[in-house]
Amino acid sequence: xxxxKENVIVDKTISFSLAIIKYCEVLEQNRKYVxxxxxxxxxxxxxxxxFEAQTAESKADFIHKMKIAAKEASESMYWLILCExxxxxxxxxxxxxxxxEIIRILSKIISSSKGKIPGFI
Length: 121
Description:
Elements: H1 8-29, H2 33-53, H3 59-85, H4 93-114
Protein name: Four helix bundle protein
Pfam families: 23S_rRNA_IVP
Organism: Niabella pedocola
């Protein structure tokens, strides 16, 4: 159940999503519509899945939602790497650092949550 306690991963993914929205606006101003759409979808999906996991029906459901968030984070990293390496694309190194941190946190959450379920690998 979601509560009012501080939740680092929820806070970080919301902040990341807000930064991505601004970043995608810059991409769109530069007529990079296809990449902007891809980045926006995958990056904001991370936070949506993390947020949804807070009301998971079971520990297994929680892990499943966090794994989806991790996959979306990995996809977001891919799109950001493309932006970084492509000529003519604006790139924000702070976004790269933020997604790397989110991936580390998600990996830790998933691995520690798995350890709490008997027989779950």
